[in-house]
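Tokens for chain A. Residues wanted.
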């Protein structure tokens, strides 16, 4: 996480700060901080045991840190979009079209644009669902962990889209050398493979010592949400 974020930042800030639309150099920096660092860290806090420090090995502490990391990541992603918007407006370029800020095949650049919007839309939904889930867990003393379980699936999808888009953006940004691109690509693929729990297990949250004492059926709100998404 730290290595990939540092390399992403180095390449982003290597672009000429005096060129037209130079604020665009902050776009990969902020997106790297959002997804490669904060949201990846949030996944590790949520999913893995044996992290350093006894204070962190409780469900309550992990949830607070997870929420903090994901909220910071979402804020950084929003900031990354804002600077992208400002750069396009400042140079009179359309948002949903290939621009002069990147190099490479037009289809790949368009793919980066539309995957990015899909990721941001999913992130907005994930934040709302996360708030609802966190409120229930706090109010119910962690006793209804199964409600709004769709939060996990949305999170995995958004994380996969984000890493895919970081990879495409990486290879479209000319300031990165081939060697740096390869190194960052490997770290992002590793983060994608080991960040979420793709096998359906729940890591730290499935610990027998910390397992909730009681379970409830999914509430009416979640059932309605699942119906909308086709998850009945």
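Reply:
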């Amino acid at each position: 996480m730290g290595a990939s974020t540092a390399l992403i930042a180095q390449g982003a800030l290597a672009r000429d700060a005096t060129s037209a639309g130079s604020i665009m150099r902050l776009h990969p920096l902020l997106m790297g901080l959002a997804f490669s660092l904060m949201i990846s860290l949030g996944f590790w806090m949520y999913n893995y045991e044996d992290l350093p420090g006894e204070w962190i090995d409780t469900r309550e502490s992990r949830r607070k840190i997870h929420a903090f990391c994901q909220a910071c990541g979402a804020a950084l992603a929003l900031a990354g979009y804002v600077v992208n918007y400002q750069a396009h407006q400042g140079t009179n370029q359309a948002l949903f079209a290939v621009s002069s800020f990147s190099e490479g095949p037009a289809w790949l650049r368009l793919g980066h644009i539309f995957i990015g919007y899909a990721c941001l839309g999913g992130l907005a939904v994930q934040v709302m669902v996360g708030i609802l889930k966190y409120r229930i867990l706090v109010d119910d003393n962690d006793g209804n962990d199964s409600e709004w379980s769709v939060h996990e699936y949305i999170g995995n999808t958004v994380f996969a889209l984000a890493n895919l888009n970081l990879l495409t953006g990486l290879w479209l940004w000319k300031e990165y050398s081939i060697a740096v691109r390869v190194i960052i690509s490997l770290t992002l693929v590793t983060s994608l493979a080991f960040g979420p729990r793709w096998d359906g297990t729940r890591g730290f949250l499935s610990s027998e010592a910390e397992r909730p004492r009681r379970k409830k059926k999914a509430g009416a709100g979640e059932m309605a949400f699942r119906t909308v998404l086709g998850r009945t």
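The two ends are 36 Å apart (CA to CA). The domain at 2-229 is CATH 1.20.120.1770 (Four Helix Bundle (Hemerythrin (Met), subunit A)).
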